[in-house]
Each structure stands twice: as structure tokens, then as C-alpha cells.
Amino acid sequence: MNEQQKIIIPRNDLAIVRSYQTELPISNVGIGSVIKFLRNDVLNPNGTGSVEFTGLEVYTKTLFAKGESGNDVISDTDAPKIALTLVYKDVEFIKLFPYTGLISQANFGMIRRLDRVKIDLTKSYITVLDSGIPANTSCIFNWFFLEPGTAPKRK
Amino acid sequence: MAAPFKIINLQKPPLNNGKQILLRFDTANVRINTDYNFERDQDVNAHIITGVMVGSYSTTSDNFPKQMSIGGKVYNVIQFQDLAKVMITLKNKQQKKLIINSPLFRFNKNVQIEIQRFSLDLDLGGCYIRFVDSPLITPLPVVIPFNFFWD
Predict the structure, then answer these.
(1) Does the predicted interface ipTM exceed a cut of 0.85?
(2) pTM exceeds cut of 0.90
(3) Which chain B residue is nearest to residue A19, measuring alpha carbons?
């Protein structure tokens, strides 16, 4: 009898140490509009520093109803119309990443991991790729991070 | 005939200890943009929390029952769809916000498939949830069941 073969799959889950939700209102829903993130003192301390990002996920209205501003979160139908670009030191190291690619529920619940990268949020942006997004709609980003020089407190 | 494959997930850390913490809402109206704090818990506070799970009721899963009896009173377990209306902030003992406004779905096992892993030195009494939308589909009184795990 053949010995049972084994496939070993390492887990890809992220142990969360810090997280911060940001809301990005889609201020201009026109095709091609670029909307930059606002300055955030937690994620970009002193306006120029950066925490080390370990993961990112986004939400649609099905999973998170409203932003703190009261805006509706972008719908499942409109989420494919958004792409994300992340910038650090003027390098667009993540370019036009589909918003839907960051929805963890579409990724077996896994958070899209980042390798302790730094991000200039005020230079990073979303791009509106198609029409039909209602006014007063927001994208929701849940950033996972470590403060520079720290390591997760796990065994 | 080839033997079937066996999949081994070696890196799955165990959840050795845990405690259920219940957030109950008895009032006639749940107010949005209002912080609802957890009660302080010495067990949760005494450990580095390695996993957090929030339960919900859904007709399509067996995560939690529809109702729970607590202290002789029957509470309706928050329904799956209502988790979209809640976000959570967790603080450590220095009252520093570690997890800020995280949508509660992040903590639901049915979304994550597995229990979400954390590494948190919490002061549970400083932690709170906030509703971002109303009304709830779940009839009042409502209970939101959390499980906190540690090694």
C-alpha cells in the first residue's frame, strides 16, 4: 500500500498588533479622478515618518455600513471601480491595485500582507476607473502596522 | 491507485485558554457614534491576548444560537448582518489605542475562516465598540458575544 502523501501548507495569517481604520471620501466621482489620502499622525508621525505596514484590508458596504463621516461605504457593485496606488519616497511601489483585491472575505478571510513597508499616505491615492459611484461614498481602509523598531510580542 | 493527499497545517498556533465576554444592550435605542465600553476583566487583562472572536447569529451557520439567557433574561444574539454596523477600539494598559476603529467583521470567524490572531496587552475596561449605523436588524435586547484567547 502506498504511504499517504503529505502536503504541508504554512499559514498565511497575520497576528495583529496595531490597526487603524481610515476613511477616504470619494470627493470626485468622475472617471480618472485621483483622490489622495489625508495626513494621518498615527500612520505618518510628524508628517514625514511612517510606521511599518504589515497588512491592509478594505471594506464594502456589506461588511461595514458607514464611515465615521456618515458617508455610505462603497457598495460591492462599485468597489471594482476603484484602484489603489501606494507611494513611498516618490516611488509608486503599489500601482493601481484593484480595491476588490484587498477585500479579505474574497481572500479566504486573509489579510493582504505587506512586508513591513513604509508608505507616504498623503502621496498615495485611489483612482476612480468607472462612472456611477454615488456622491457621499467612502472607501474604508484598515491598516495593520508595527511602530518602527518593534516586533510582535508572540512566542 | 495513488493514495489521497493529506494536508497538514503545521503553523497553526494553538488557542490554549480563553474567556467569553458579553456586551449587552438593554436600552430601547442603540445610539450611533457613542462609545460602549467593555467591563474590566482581570483574566483578559492578565494575559497577552493572542486571539479574538466575535460571535453572531445566522441562519446559514451554527456560530451562535439565536438567543442567550443571561442572568435570567433572554437576549438576542447580534445577527450577522448587524456586524457591519459596529467597529471596535482596543486599548492597552497605558490607554494607548492599539486597534483603532476596526470593523467588527474582522473578528468574526465566519469571515476569517479561522479565529483572528492578535498580540495585545489589553485593558479591557478601556476598550469599546461604537455603532456606525442604525437601526439594528436584531431585536433588542441584544448581546454581542466575544471570546478572548491567550496562550
Answers:
(1) no
(2) no
(3) B99
